[in-house]
Design a protein that fits this description.
The chain is of the alpha+beta class. It is built from four helices and five strands, in the order ααβββαβαβ. The strands form two sheets. The protein has a three-stranded antiparallel beta sheet. A two-stranded antiparallel sheet has the order 2-3. The longest helix has 54 residues. It is rod-shaped, with a radius of gyration of 51 Å.
Length: 181
């Protein structure tokens, strides 16, 4: 072998042996530090805190902080669940109330028609009988008027003169819509 090769080989062995010693030290240091700490009396003063103790305390603080965050998130989810449950109860109660109100509506219907109202003794239209007649014509028993139409009725001679009111004209009222039962 040449001298250069021997020197190169010795350099590689020296480098490898140093790397092995360094790796062994890195692996052994935490174990040595733990053994040294186990032999010392407990002292919480900051001067006696080593590098690995500081890292351990930092990890402890991070774990505590994470635990607090997780606990707060759990409490918020519980509160959300309680609020959702309360909202669901209110919604169900409202739906039941609405269903009950619809069930209590009597069987009624609005119908359209055209029935003349009679004139009462005081000259006003009396549409009760007309509303009943509209409802009976549509297959119901009775009803009340909800919409009325008023018209001016004139003889043809008044219309032919170009007027829409005057002598011989009178007002009539008709029931145009009624709610029937």
């Amino acid at each position: 072998m040449s001298v250069d090769r021997i020197a190169s080989r010795e350099f590689e062995l020296a480098f490898f042996s140093r790397a092995v010693v360094f790796a062994t030290a890195l692996v052994a240091l935490p174990a040595l530090a733990a053994a040294q700490q186990a032999g010392r009396p407990a002292d919480s003063s900051p001067q006696n805190v080593g590098f690995f103790d500081a890292i351990g305390h930092w990890f402890d603080r991070q774990a505590d902080s994470l635990n607090l965050s997780v606990d707060e998130a759990r409490r918020q989810m519980e509160r959300f669940g309680q609020k959702a449950e309360s909202a669901a109860r209110v919604t169900v109660d409202s739906a039941q109330d609405a269903a009950g109100a619809v069930a209590r509506i009597p069987r009624s219907r609005i119908v359209s028609g055209y029935e003349r109202c009679a004139t009462a003794a005081n000259g006003a239209p009396d549409c009760l009988a007309a509303a009943d007649a509209v409802c009976k014509a549509n297959g119901f028993g009775s009803g009340r008027s909800i919409d009325m139409t008023t018209a001016e009725i004139c003889p043809p001679r008044v219309w032919m003169t170009g007027r829409n009111s005057g002598a011989g004209c009178h007002t009539e009222t008709f029931v145009s819509r009624a709610i029937c039962r």
